[in-house]
Amino acid sequence: MGFLDMIRNKPNFYNNRGIEEFNIGNYENALEFFNKALKICSECGEIWYNRASTLWELGKYYEAIKCYDKALDINPKQLEVWFNLGVILSGMGKHQEALECFNRALELEGEDAEAWFIKGMILKKLKRHPEASECFKKVIMLDPDFKSIKRRENSI
């Protein structure tokens, strides 16, 4: 087996190529590379996350959710997975499920102003205004220059 063959049998080779394709907007190509990486290592949470993010960009939300779930099965302490899953679910109108995702994300990183902001927006959609207001106060405390919060705090 030659050097190139050895490299091509490593999931990172395909994962890195997928990331390169993703970063330039070639999502179909990225997906192919992530699929190849998963054939080598089906228990690599990062690759499931990358595949999910690619599917999200392609508008394949249900498939993306399944991949994010798989990434969480492997490692439930991935903040960015909880965050992205929450955003997708909220966009699909599944606000209660999205709220649970942001609660999990904030358990992992309680100082994430953007997560607090999105949690506040979800609570607002659920008509839980006092809780939403508390989230927005937390955002201002964590990041006084947070741009979106200035427009939103008076609308609650």
Q: How many strands?
A: 0
Low-pLDDT windows of residues: 1-6
Q: Please identify the structural class as seen in this structure.
A: mainly alpha
How much strand content do the residues show?
Answer: under 5%
Estimated radius of gyration: 18 Å
Mean of residue pLDDT values: 91
Describe the protein's architecture and organization:
- This protein is an all-alpha fold and 156 residues long.
- It folds into two domains: 1-75, Tetratricopeptide repeat domain (Serine Threonine Protein Phosphatase 5, Tetratricopeptide repeat), CATH 1.25.40.10; 78-156, Alpha Horseshoe (Serine Threonine Protein Phosphatase 5, Tetratricopeptide repeat), CATH 1.25.40.
- It has helices at 3-8, 11-23, 27-40, 45-57, 61-74, 79-91, 95-108, 113-125, 129-142, 147-152.
- Helix 2 (11-23) packs antiparallel against helix 3 and helix 6 packs antiparallel against helix 7 (95-108).
- The protein is elongated.
- The relative contact order is 0.08.
- Residues 1-6 have low confidence and may be disordered.
